[in-house]
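Students often ask what a 'structure token' actually looks like in practice. Rather than answer in the abstract, let us consider Acetyl-CoA C-acetyltransferase, a protein of 386 residues. Its sequence is given first.
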Amino acid sequence: MSEAYIVEALRTAGGRRGGALKDWHPADLGAEVLNALVDRSGIDPAAIDDVIVGCVSQVGEQSFHVGRNMVLASRLPDSVPAVTIDRQCGSSQQALHFAAQAVMSGTQDVVIAAGVESMTRVPMGTPFILPAQAGIGTGPWTQRIRDRYGVTEFSQFTGAEMIADKYGFSREELDRFALESHRKAARATDEGAFDREIVPVSVDGQQHKRDEGIRFDASMEGLASLKTLKDGGRVTAGNASQICDGASGVLVVSEAALKAHGLTPLARIHNLTVTAGDPVIMLEEPIPATRRALDRAGMRIDDIDLYEVNEAFAPVPLAWLREIDADPERLNVNGGAIALGHPLGASGAKLMATLVHALRARGKRWGLQTMCEGGGIANVTIIEAL
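Now compare that with the structural description of the same chain:
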């Protein structure tokens, strides 16, 4: 089987809801990343075999095939095909898996995996809110599904509280983790750790190249003042991921393409794993998925130099750390979604951009990325920095 290499991995800086990126159409925002991938890698855009785009809320401005519209809004020739996929929060991580699988199989040589989500212009939940408001249909979960699992709906907020309960995490522990996310992200920003991965975009004549969600003055007192999302709960807006606008992309190529186009690889993709489990607690799946990925790769967690575990809610990475017996000093070293934002369909490739460049900046070799996804699914990707 052929190898798959990452030649470039980029993202926009996150925009808060109603913030710097509010006037950017998602297709245009995603197009900026596609253009930057081509410009920075030096690849002939006509050589791109496919563009695979992750997006969760595929309605409104993200409807009618946002992946293809990103290509049409970019400088790529219209001969470049595209497809839009949805694996919930893991959509663009799955796009990366599909891109790598295409290259490894030998069916394609140059594939872009990307993601986009404007949570300002297409608010979270819009795909099922609009039909409900119009009185059309009964929603995504049939009575058969509800009966099978004994619930009326599947909620990630409920899943986060269930994990906090199961593992006995206190509100203070969740807030402490959130505070560290902000501190790490603030330090990384001040030190220029994100400069290599960020694609600046124009906003009011200025270049937006700094993640808006980071609270440089975050404190335990401030986090403690926030209300929980449910009475008697522990999860708050402060220890959960931030709503975010953003786009991201990873250029994946074969060894033949490296030689043919004179490209320099940043990393090699070592393992691709996806698993599924309980759709009610839902957010716990990165734990068994990581175990399977390490087993298939013949590795131990101690072999991995850095890990990116999406901070959908603080209980998720905390439970992962405990169950995997992982080193907290290697986790989300530049902060995570609690500070940097979670632009849903763009988060998978966004985390990969951060992981690739963090490994190379530190002279480290092995990286692992995982994230919880709606429906109780999780992707895991292991890479080797070159």
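One point worth highlighting: The radius of gyration is 20 Å. Ask yourself how you might have guessed this from the sequence alone, and why that guess would often be unreliable.
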